[in-house]
Structure formats: C-alpha cells, structure tokens
Design a protein that fits this description.
- Strands 1-2-3 form a 3-stranded antiparallel β-sheet, with no helix packed on it.
- With 120 residues, it is an alpha+beta fold.
- It is built from 3 helices and 3 strands.
- The chain is flat and about 45 Å long.
- It has one domain.
- InterPro entries: Rpr2/Snm1/Rpp21.
Length: 120
Amino acid sequence: MKKVQGNDSFQRINYLYQVSKYISEKNPALSSYYGNLIVSIAKKNVLKIHPDIKRQMCKKCRCTLIHNVTSTKKIKRKNKSKIIEWVCSICDTKKALPIDKNKDHILWVDKSEAVVEIIN
C-alpha cells in the first residue's frame, strides 16, 4: 500500500476547515484565523487546497462563506451565462463562480482524465 505524501497535512487542513465552518457563525475573526492557517499549511507543504474548500473561503479575509451568516449570495447573468456572486459581509469582497449547465464548465478535479491512480 502506497503512502500519500502530505497525508497528515491534508488531515490537519480538513480539521481546520471543519472548525472554521463551525465557529464562523459565532466568531468570524477566529474563522478567518483558521482560514489563514489552512492556506499557510498548504503553502509550506506545497499542497493544493481542494476546490470545494477554496470556493467556500473568502479570497481576502479567508473567512468561511456561509449564506446569510457571513455572506450574501446573488445569482446574476453575465454575457448569456449565469454566475453566483458571493459577497463577504466581513470585508465586502466579491467572488463570482460560473453555474451554467448548458456550458461545459466542469472542474478539472471532477473530470475523468484528472484521476491517475486510486489509492485505498
């Protein structure tokens, strides 16, 4: 059985993400501190943060974005395509994500050619 490089770091990132999401309603400053820890761990160990986690964090303050708690969500049209715009209520940073199903927008991680090997 192969050992995954950075497994302990991935586990720590996962734990910090869960704590950040849980605490963000009560203390957004502590949530952003945990978000900064996630990014610094990933940088030090040269790891990529999973896109689902990245999409739920503010780009500026790194607080966990939760609808009607730490952010607001709007669906907009832009050049015949739909986007979700998240606005962080702490730092007022906007984050836009495409949601069109007619277009062929799929994350690279979700595509079949991204999987090289499955490790159990």
